Amino acid sequence: MNLSIIIPLLNEQESLPELHQWIVKVMTSNNYSYEVIFIDDGSSDNSWEIIEQLSNENSNVKGIHFQRNFGKSQALHAGFAKAKGDVVITMDADLQDSPDEIPDLYNMIINQNYDLVSGWKKKRYDSVVSKNLPSKLFNWAARKTSGVHLNDFNCGLKAYKNIVIKNIEVSGEMHRYIPVLAKNAGFSKIGEKVVKHQARKYGESKFGISRFINGFLDLITIWFLSRYGKRPMHLFGLGGVIMFIIGFLSTGFIISLKLLKLYVFHEPTILVAQNPLFYIALTAMIIGSQLFLAGFLGEIILRTKNNEERYKIAKEVNL
Question: pTM of this prediction?
Fold first, then answer.
């Protein structure tokens, strides 16, 4: 199979028939073998009924219906698990991503041997204040932190080799950082293509300004996980040992100084407990011990954790 097209969605009943027709037109004109996997992330409208109808009309249409809203990352994870195409395309269901971009993305994967190609919505039709400016700041921070030089991490239109999506774990709200996850998994040939951004035709955006705040927090998380996720003791243990040694040496200095004054120089001296440096040293030792234990517990959890079910699938069609 040439292509798997994965489309997560939430309350997009108006756009689904038009998007389906558009995709079929592109697939037919290019003679691709394909599947379209719609993942309904707990829609409260008639989105699932429309997906079932489309699947009855077209056997290439497949669907997954979540029990409730679990988030875009979980929807992509479910779609990735089912995808069979040599090239996997992800796109949004709101018609702002153009299926006409699919052939070029496909060719970049097949002919230019990219592991992943991310879309870049260079010209956008979103609000400048609420979306464009925060997006530029977010993408700048993501480039600096991750070392992946993309202009638009948030673009939902991306293409992957099948082996890439089978070797990354998309959880939480990490869908923004799939290129970073791919790079950390060893897939380093990551490209970018300028794609058309369509004005929203139906409904309204499901994402507010809070997604950028969450995005920055997730960026910190993925930075930490990429460097210390497999070896938390290297960070917490090292910091803990350094803090404990500083505290221990400071305590030894305080006690040694008191003994010297009393028994060598025969000078009066204050109690150890009255020396402010003593409490600083004691705090450093306590913090050092806690950091060391945090690293130790992190190593134990990492070695004993079980993969938890992150979403509930209520229904499937054609899968």
Answer: 0.73
